[in-house]
Design a protein that fits this description.
The complex is a heterodimer of chains A (338) and B (366). With 338 residues, chain A is an alpha/beta fold. Chain A is 38% helix and 18% strand. In chain A, the strands form four sheets. Chain A has a five-stranded mixed sheet. The longest helix of chain B has 31 residues. The termini of chain B are far apart. Classes of the chains: A alpha/beta (338), B mainly alpha (366). At the A-B interface, α1, β2, β4, α4 and α7 of A face α10 and α14 of B. Chain B: Its main location: membrane.
Amino acid sequence: MKKALKLTGAALALTALSGLSQASTLDTVKERGYLSCGVSTGLPGFSSPDDKGNWSGLDVDVCRAMAAATLGDASKVKYTPLTAKERFTALQSGEIDVLPRNTTWTLTRDTSLGMNFVGVNYYDGQGFMVSKKLGVTSAKELDGATVCIQAGTTTELNMADYFREHNMKYQPIVFDTSAQSVQGFESGRCDMLTSDQSQLYGLRTKLANPNDAIVLPEIISKEPLGPVVRQGDDQWFNIAKWSLYAMVAAEELGVSSANVDAMMKSENPGISRLLGNSGPGGKAMGISDDFAYQIVKQVGNYSESFERNVGKDSPLLIQRGLNALWKDGGIMYVPPFR
Amino acid sequence: MIVNDKTIPSRPAPAANRGVIGWLRENLFATPGNSVLTLIGIAFLLWAIPPILQWAVLEADLFGSDKNACTSEGACWVFVSARFQQFIYGFYPDAELWRVNIFFAEMTAVLVWVLWDKMPKRMWGGIWFLTGFPATSFMLLYGGAFGLEVVDTHKWGGLMLTLVISLVGMVIALPVGILLALGRRSQMPAISSFCTVFIEVWRGLPLITILFMASVMLPLFVPGDIELDKLIRAMIGISLFEAALIAEVIRGGLQAMPKGQYEAADAMGLSYWKGMRLVIMPQVLKISIPGIVNTFVQLFKDTSLVLIIGLFDLLAVMQAGIADVNWPNIAIEAFVFTGFVFWLFCFGMSRYSLSLERKLDTGHKN
């Protein structure tokens, strides 16, 4: 067994080395003519195919933004649907260039898998959904509640911790799939449903009457979700980071896909630097100076992307919450474009 | 002396033994125990069928384009019809769908040609099925020749992908399996040990593990500039796995052959391959039909496992559809429909194998 482990380690190390000696990811992408992007196999709001097979979602917009930044065309993306188990290998083996697949940023993943987390495009966390009829407004009023959970997830452990910490009792009812747990919740077998908040909003749309249920504001775990790139290609790492930042910075400066052409003439030094009319631009990363313009023009700013995919313009109706800009009470904050 | 030169006409059987009543008495109410079971059975059907009918047909919504069309209590088949294109073709581009349709048509034609014994020149049909059909299908579906636009395999999906994977699996697994089975019984130690190890290793691994190896480990071991398509990796894994299963089915058939058949072939002066082809294999394949078809039915259903490596076969497309927030909880409709499609194909295969068995039956049983 030990020997096998060593062998696997050696193989992984070799792959990592061969990864280093390969051409830069940017050159590969430019030569190939499209960006290869790893997404989920269907997660509402983040990456899911519609009935025509077009991918959309918050994570998909990261792919589109990077394609706009590197190739000047947000549509030049090849989406590779990946399951949770194979996502990291697909990145390590070079099958995909970037992995925005609602992946939680943790120390282990960041340091020991040969990958780098680019940033956070959605601050998620475990929450609770209850029926409106209960009249509950906070999770702290839920002493003695029955809870629907999905089997084999860390949510079960997080919840046990939370209830013990607050000296409350609960009765877990475990289901295999999310569709089953929704039915359990709807038929009244449990008082509340727990999962990551973004998922809860997705599950809520599956109820016969979504307005009968509310997602409580409490978050009992930290799940910062963000795109991931291979370690060892700093240029590509930077492109991914600043593509993500450009969307948030555009929202901060009030630049949207609707007004970006007018904003090109803006005298505001911040906007002019963002859109590449002055300041550093994208040259140091090997991409065009107007990469942020291309992103905003073709994909939109972070607010547009959020509202379109998960926010008030989508069936999910997720509030901005933590994902609001720092000046609006959230924690979305990006370094300055200068 | 009275001679009755007319035979007395035979009287009809007693009323209790003929017609509907007779049939009922014989089949459903022969003994008290039998009658009780019949009544229980009828009660169960009366209890189970009406609600299912009501849900699936009477109260179902059939027409419309979005969830607003699903107003009644029953099944919402609108979901299936709204996503029908995706269930059949996956994400294949709209403008190129005719290529998949031609593929379906050619597949049906070739299968009828090969499988229906009234067709002429079935030998050529078989050769076309193994050579021309895969080549034209690849050309049609993938493109890149004759001015056809390349459609990457990540856009393939739905029933089309399920059929492609199973056909490739069957076409490769049967010949490879036969060779492996012959190899395992070979007198040459190198060949027989190789075949034995191959069969035991592949048969001993769960298909999920093989698919994960193919999708996750393989790309790590091959150099970065060789990019093996994920679908091809999955196809190789499935084909070799099924070949190992088929090999064992065939080996069972080989062992059931009386030794006299081998000796007869030798006595006629046939070489090994000729003897196999003319004497042994026709008999072996005949008695192996149930096992082979069983393996193929299994293979057809197993293809849905590719959803764990992110390929959108029929089941995976369905699951992605279930997650769509624009629809209410339609998981039941989706799974019932998927199950029905899988059942249709598997039932067809098993009926065909039954008729084949009857046709090839030469009365050697017992």
